[in-house]
Amino acid sequence: MDIKIVDVARLANVSPTTVSRVLNNNPIVKPKTRDAVLKVIEELKYVPHAAAKNLRQQKTMTIGVIVSDIKVSYNTDIVKGIQTKAYAQKYKVVICDTQNDLDIEREYLRLLMDRSVDGIILVASLLPEQEIVDLAERGFAVGIIGRRIDRANVLNVHTDNVSAAKEAVEHLIGQGHRDIVFLSGYANAKDSYDRLEGYIKALGMHSIPFRPELVENGNFNETGGYEAFARLKEKGLTFSAVFSANDEMALGVYEYCNEKKIGIPGEVAIVGVDNDRVSKYLTPSLSTIDQPKYDMGFLLAEKLIRSMNGEAEVPRVSVLNSRLIVRQSSTTYSR
Amino acid sequence: MDIKIVDVARLANVSPTTVSRVLNNNPIVKPKTRDAVLKVIEELKYVPHAAAKNLRQQKTMTIGVIVSDIKVSYNTDIVKGIQTKAYAQKYKVVICDTQNDLDIEREYLRLLMDRSVDGIILVASLLPEQEIVDLAERGFAVGIIGRRIDRANVLNVHTDNVSAAKEAVEHLIGQGHRDIVFLSGYANAKDSYDRLEGYIKALGMHSIPFRPELVENGNFNETGGYEAFARLKEKGLTFSAVFSANDEMALGVYEYCNEKKIGIPGEVAIVGVDNDRVSKYLTPSLSTIDQPKYDMGFLLAEKLIRSMNGEAEVPRVSVLNSRLIVRQSSTTYSR
DNA sequence: AAAGGTATTGAAAACGATTTCAGCTTCTGA
DNA sequence: TCAGAAGCTGAAATCGTTTTCAATACCTTT
Predict the structure, then answer these.
(1) Order of strands across the sheet with B241-244?
(2) Interface touch A48/B114, C-beta < 8 Å
(3) How remote is the C-alpha of B281 from its chain's centroid?
(4) Can you identify the CATH homologous superfamily of domain A161-291?
(5) How far apart (Å, rounded) are the C-alpha atoms in residues A250 and A224?
(6) How far is CA B275 from CA B74, B248, B285, in A?
(7) How many whole angstroms separate alpha carbon A164 and alpha carbon A147?
(8) Which one of A303, B111, B122, B190 has the minimum C-beta count within 10 Å?
(9) Spacing of B289 CA from D15 C1' in Å
(10) With contact defined as beta carbons under 8 Å apart, do A181 and A243 qualify?
(11) H/E element holding B155?
(12) How many residue pairs from chains A and B have C-beta atoms closer than 8 A?
């Protein structure tokens, strides 16, 4: 503690400059001096002061990640991918958890703008597109995962929500269902909107009329899903399947069905989105759309790092494929 | 981007000193000047440079958290508690994920010793006690959660693993079980050892002889649990219940039982530890020991911040209570 | 042995904020 | 009207590195 480069220099009979060179593996220093310096560093347990280094070099080698909720496996899978890539390139990672609160998200963004990070990644962001674009236009390295943004220098990795939703709904139709509920998330979320579009497309492909009363908002969380499903049931609507815009809301549906002794998939078949960690442990196991979350994180981190390093031709947006995982909750011959 | 305090100063016709004072809410500046400066700051969208500030102040207002795996809800629950306290006190939080690898953990520790954080919190650490003590003795603010360490200035919050395990096993005994398997984690983990001790104590209290062959190591993860349980079964041992040192290994047991059509809790009753997010969604739901994870994180963060602020009398170690949650996996009258 | 390179090293400036200390105003009271 | 205090502001030092540029040491060649 409190040992500085000059202390090392003095003890090793060299200048701070030389110590700095040793620290940064500058091959110009004579092997003999290098060894002497290293020995002193070891002896004193000297560790360079990050702030001084950052100030001089005008970079921090860290990436800031803003996620909606660190407890959601969709987010942590992505974060894992980011971390793996980042660490491999000697970057550190700061994680900020906004608790799905837009104001908190804005606040973190402000915090990160003090150059304590070299670049920012948004995961499941609630921020209006324009604010993200502004950020990029002010010269910050910014990337966003999950949501499609193709403007300014905003880096982006996402999956095709429309066709994924379409695939899920067509799967349900293939199982003989025609009255299919769509449980949407926040009304303003682009994800929700795209999944709705896919839902409608799938119905269209099979000439099933779209019934707006079968679309209900569950706010992307478990209780929201429970309540949305309850509303549908209490309205006395008839339907035999549910496509839920994420797995968490599906959990709410499970709970409701459990209470009211409604059989899954017998009376209601269900397909979710996200392949949450719990979904395969449910009984019946939950069919869901799996996004390559880890890969998405890894890929965006790569883009970001390359772009921070000044590489000119970094492809700005990439689309990865998601896939439908069919489990018990949507297949008639249960187990 | 690239706007410095002098730019603001120039435009506001004041010195950098005054701008700095405004930034730091120093009440000494005249309201009129303050407003003028604030206006320029707003106009220029000036954000102070973190590294410069950190360097001068010799602190960063951030806490480093090293966790074993960001995907484990035990860890994220704790992290949530830490974050809540930290953010309330204007601290940022850096999370490092070691993937349960001791070498990676050491590497992160080295990274964080560059004063890029003001204090360090270890969650589910694999580090030998002595190394943690060394850290504290070198003057760093360090805290550890989950594992009892009562030396040097190491801050600590943990629960009583021995009595928690004892409670779980006594619950099983109360359900009529006498041949109870103990699934342990890493052999060297203090947690495992304490839980084993509680297991043995519980047996002792009820005059049930301890059979070492009923203790098997599952490395704290799902496949480890599966394999450990398989080994026990293949040895042809007889037992009617399992106490698993964490929920993840219990998942492995569920899987094995599912494959081999072994009824839970009819043929094997199970109790785990951690109250993992999935445990309540399992069929049958998993009985488990719940630790007040959020509170543990919150409390340790509080200790750490107080100690970093130079408060002398911060109680160094706290013990919180865990509680047994009885669900279906350990009760004979299933459902 | 001198000239000209090349290798190796160090002195000092720079990064962008905060903080110390001194100085200038302005006010108060006699 | 003036001394002294209080209020407000700014010049310059400082934090601990890296980087630039110049200087020195050491070779090689002739």
Answers:
(1) B215-217, B180-184, B241-244, B269-273, B287-290, B323-325
(2) yes
(3) 22
(4) Response regulator (3.40.50.2300)
(5) 10
(6) 8, 10, 11
(7) 14
(8) B190
(9) 49
(10) yes
(11) strand B155-159
(12) 114
Q: B62-159+292-320 has which fold? A: Rossmann fold (3.40.50)
Start-end of CATH 1.10.260.40 domains in chain A: 5-57
Residue of A nearest to B94 (CA): A94
- Cis peptide bond prior to B315, omega within 30° of 0: no
Q: Give CA separation, A128 vs A124, A144, A190, A217, B208, in Å.
A: 12, 12, 10, 20, 64
Tell me the HSE value of B189 on the side-chain side, using a 13 A CA sphere: 22
Residue nearest D16 (alpha carbon to C1'): A52
Residue A55 CA to nucleotide C17 C1', Å?
Answer: 10
Our measurement of CA A17 to C1' D22, in angstroms, reads 14
Question: Integer distance in angstroms from CA B52 to C1' C10?
Answer: 26
Token readout for A321 is 């494929």
Return the closest-CA partner of residue B119 out of B310, B313, B295, B293: B310
Rounded distance between C-alpha atoms, residue B35 and residue B41, angstroms: 10
How far is B301 from A201, CA to CA, in rounded Å?
50
Q: Which residue has the tokens 């000697």?
A: A90
Task: Give the nearest nucleotide to A17, CA to C1'.
Answer: C10
Chain C bases closer than 7 A to any CB of the protein:
7-12, 14-20
Interface of A with B in 247-286 (CB under 8 A): 251, 277-278, 281-283
Which residue in chain A has the smallest CA separation from B139? A1
Each residue's pLDDT, cut to its tens digit, for chain A (335 residues) gives: 689 999 999 999 999 999 999 999 999 999 999 999 999 999 999 999 999 999 999 999 999 999 999 999 999 999 999 999 999 999 999 999 998 899 999 999 999 999 999 999 999 998 999 999 999 999 999 999 988 899 999 999 999 999 999 999 999 999 999 999 999 987 667 788 899 999 999 999 999 999 999 999 999 899 999 999 999 999 999 999 999 999 999 999 999 999 999 999 999 999 999 999 999 999 999 999 999 999 999 999 999 999 998 887 889 999 999 999 999 999 975 33
From B107, which residue of chain A is nearest by alpha-carbon distance? A87
* B108-145 exposure pattern, b = at least 16 Cβ within 10 A, e = fewer: bbebbbebbbbbbbbbbbbbeeeebbebbeeebbbbbb
Q: Where in chain B is the domain with CATH 3.40.50.2300?
A: 62-159+292-320, 161-291
**What's domain A5-57's architecture?**
Orthogonal Bundle (1.10)
Residue B243 pairs in a beta bridge with: B182, B271
- Cα separation of the two ends of chain B: 62
Chain A environment of B78 (Cβ under 8 Å): none
Question: B61 CB near a chain A CB, below 8 Å?
Answer: no
